[in-house]
Automatic annotation (TrEMBL):
GO terms for molecular function: hydrolase activity, hydrolyzing O-glycosyl compounds. The record marks 473 as: Important for catalytic activity, responsible for pKa modulation of the active site Glu and correct orientation of both the proton donor and substrate. Pfam families: Glyco_hydro_43 (PF04616). One of its GO terms (biological process) is carbohydrate metabolic process. Keywords: Glycosidase, Hydrolase. This is Glycosyl hydrolases family 43. Pathway: Glycan metabolism; L-arabinan degradation. It comes from Parapedobacter koreensis. The keyword rRNA-binding does not apply. Belongs to the glycosyl hydrolase 43 family.
């Protein structure tokens, strides 16, 4: 039986870490390492909830179970090494290791697929470089681990790319931060079955080294397989010299899903606890169907002397796995560093485009869903990211809706999801399209929980089938017991526009495609309809959505006494004619491209809130080139029967937050 140790939670604000909200407030450091000093444990690793983190954060613990920022640290001090602060790297901050030599602390890490060495006079940092440069810029190398031998020499174990990822070692000059190239040697190749399983195809991968020395023997612990592979695992090899030759041990792997009970277990570090026990800290996959964000785990190591072989053997005590957690009051979310009862836009970044937000009637929590996007954090394209919040302000990533793309279309992305609670289940209507797609369409998926997994139920229609070019951006609405879907986007085609049509009673198909009704012209997209005081209010977006800092997206409104229209603006003009509509929100000097809003959400005081995406003018895109469409929030004011915002643009200063009990 695998027994995991968790603990109760204390109040600490950790908004700067952007860690996902889980019931137990688990830690989400991948490639973790723990340094022990002054009666405390110091933990750092890749990312927090992602590799998008701008450097490395540190947490401290007395017992390996509950973790918090260093005592007395201000928010900015949680970041022990910051991108751009006299340290090499602009992206891909991975796999750190802390060490001390004399009175100096060192942090070796990977950035831009190069190993780096920074230093500090204090353990919590900040860590900087005298000369901003990688250790060896001659070729790509990652996953550095510095080993100090008994004779005072240092060795850099790391990964180099050569038709795969292989471990190498070289003598290392700690003062200069450089290897001695003439000593560079490959450790070993991929030879064992467990090092290459078919669960995830990849080139050979040997990575995540840790080295210790016991009774004259060198023990090299390493991970094998791709980190996305469920069989990612840890084994070890033994040698009489820091250069090898290395003999892989029969007891490997010592860490594997069949041993610890979770997929993707690996890439960690050995350390001796305050109790004298040897531990291994490592990461595991987020869940059975999802890799990231990867969770942090700690397991005791059993070490036994084999007198016949003249060496130690290692195994893990899987009955005592520790699931480390953040100190928290149990709210389920991390309060940001802000004045109580206020917020400042954006409420989530880097991206949650085309948001849809629902309040789960079971838990009372809010869930936000966004268009498939690559956030530029090394995690690839998220198939409809899902966020969770208790208050519309503090959002945390909790997963993605799909594990794979729906099969009814050969190519494209999953755009503009629209989430709904329908007949006791969660329905996700979505667009399936790509830029310039001649035949995009609308589909639907269903789940039993708001975080999924969502099972695709196929298409409702394609553009050709319904005779509406660019059929994307679905919106579901149930009225008087009848289910409807609305959709549409830009085009100059005569049949272009925003349309509505009745769905079957189960909401999973359209009985008659010919019964569609046009409610807006072809210069609108991203329809949302809100009912209030006998009127149906149409919100639609116009302009360019996705040109980074040059985006011209904006939202206009109209209203009707009937769900299917006609919808008129304040001037009484029908929005089925191009150019009509009453401006609701546009960009300003700080934020551009506000649009594609979710449903209005009322707080416990009856105030309606407008949730949408917007782009920071100063940071228009992420490294992949995708527009940095952040999640935004603003209060709706109703005046003379029409919705307004305070000044018709995204708020940039602290605002009163929604009120939820």
């Amino acid at each position: 039986m695998i027994r995991r140790i968790t603990c109760s939670l204390l109040l600490v604000g950790l908004h700067v870490l952007h860690l996902p909200a889980q019931e137990k407030r688990e830690l989400f450091f991948a490639d973790p390492t723990i340094y022990v000093a002054d009666g405390k444990y110091y933990l750092t690793g890749t990312g927090g909830n992602s590799r998008e983190a701008p450097g490395f954060f540190v947490l401290v613990s007395d017992d390996l179970k509950t973790w918090a920022p260093p005592a007395g640290a201000r928010d900015s001090a949680y970041l022990i090494l910051a991108k751009g602060d006299q340290a090499f790297g602009t992206e891909g901050f991975w796999a750190p290791q802390l060490l001390k030599a004399k009175d100096t602390y060192y942090l070796t890490y990977t950035a831009n697929e190069q190993t780096v060495l920074a230093q500090s006079s204090a353990l919590p940092g900040p860590y900087r470089q005298k000369e901003v440069a990688p250790i060896d810029g001659a070729e790509k190398n990652i996953d550095s681990y510095i080993f100090n031998d008994d004779d005072g020499k240092y060795y850099l174990y790391h990964v180099r790319f050569d038709d795969g990822n292989y471990l190498w070692v070289a003598e290392f000059d700690l003062e200069k931060g450089k290897i001695k190239p003439e000593t560079l040697k490959k450790c070993f190749g991929q030879t064992e079955p467990w090092e290459a399983t078919p669960a995830y195809e990849s080139s050979p991968i040997m990575e995540g080294p840790t080295v210790i020395k016991l009774k004259g023997k060198y023990y090299l612990f390493y991970s094998a397989n791709h980190f996305r592979n469920i069989d990612y695992a840890v084994g070890y090899a033994v040698a009489d010299s820091p250069y090898g030759p290395w003999i892989k041990q029969k007891g490997s792997p010592i860490l594997h899903r069949t041993i610890v009970g979770e997929n993707g277990s690996g890439h960690g570090d050995l350390f001796e606890g305050l109790d004298g026990q040897l531990y291994y800290v490592y990461h595991v996959h987020f869940g059975q169907q999802q890799v990231s964000p990867r969770k942090t785990r700690i397991v005791p190591i059993t070490m036994q002397w084999d007198p016949e072989a003249g060496l130690y053997t290692f195994s893990v005590n899987s009955e005592e796995i520790i699931e480390p957690v953040l100190a928290d009051a149990g709210r389920g979310v991390s309060p940001p560093a802000r004045k109580e009862g206020t917020y400042t836009n954006p409420v989530f970044e880097p991206i949650l485009a085309d948001p849809s937000v629902i309040r789960d009637p079971q838990s009372g929590l809010f869930y936000a869903y966004g268009t498939q996007d690559d956030w530029g954090d090394g995690q690839g394209s998220r198939l409809v990211p899902i966020l969770q919040s208790a208050n519309l302000v503090d959002w945390q990533v909790v997963g993605q809706a799909f594990s794979s793309k729906p099969a009814w279309k050969s190519s494209g992305g999953i755009w503009a999801p629209d989430a709904n609670y329908v007949d006791g289940r969660y329905y996700l209507y979505y667009a399936y399209s790509t830029w310039g797609d001649p035949n995009p369409g609308v589909g639907v998926a269903v789940a039993d929980k708001p975080i999924g997994p969502f099972a695709d139920r196929g298409k409702l229609f394609t553009s050709e089938e319904v005779d509406v070019p660019n059929s994307i951006d679905p919106f579901f609405m149930e009225e008087a017991g009848e289910k409807h879907v609305f959709w549409g986007s830009f085009s100059d085609a005569p049949t272009q526009g925003t349309y509505g049509i009745r769905l079957a009673d189960d909401g999973l198909s359209v009985p008659d495609l010919s019964r569609k009704v046009k409610i807006a012209a072809g210069d609108y997209e991203a329809v949302m309809i809100h009912k209030r005081d006998g009127y149906y209010y149409f919100f639609g977006s116009k302009g360019s959505c996705c040109e980074g800092a040059n985006s011209q997206y904006h939202v206009l409104v109209a209203r009707s006494a009937h769900l299917m229209g006609p919808y008129l603006d304040k001037e009484g003009r029908a929005i089925t004619e191009r150019g009509n509509g009453t401006l609701f929100i546009k960009g300003n000097e700080l934020f551009v491209g506000p649009g594609h809003n979710a449903r209005l959400i009322a707080d416990d005081e009856g105030t309606d809130w407008f949730i949408y995406h917007g782009i920071d003018r100063s940071k228009g895109t992420v490294p992949t080139g995708a527009s940095r469409r952040m999640l935004m929030l603003d209060r709706v004011i109703w005046r003379d029967g029409w919705p307004e915002l305070a000044d018709g643009t995204p708020s940039a200063k602290p605002q009163q937050a929604p009120v939820f009990q």
